[in-house]
Specification:
single chain, about 50 residues, mainly beta, two-stranded antiparallel ribbon, globular, DUF1540, DUF1540 domain-containing protein
Length: about 50
């Protein structure tokens, strides 16, 4: 498991200084077998 999860979406409630994600858990989905990060969606995102 990753020690630090980085995120550049500073409009998210879970965004912290240093581009760190402060969410307890991360939920990411893909409608098909993903081969790039562009093919995934973060369901953990919540607006500030």
């Amino acid at each position: 498991m990753a020690k630090d999860v980085l995120c550049e979406v500073n409009s998210c409630r879970h965004w912290s200084n240093g581009n760190k994600c402060s969410a307890e858990t991360i939920y990411i989905v893909s409608k098909k077998q993903a081969s790039t990060s562009d093919e995934t969606d973060c369901k953990t995102f919540e607006t500030k």
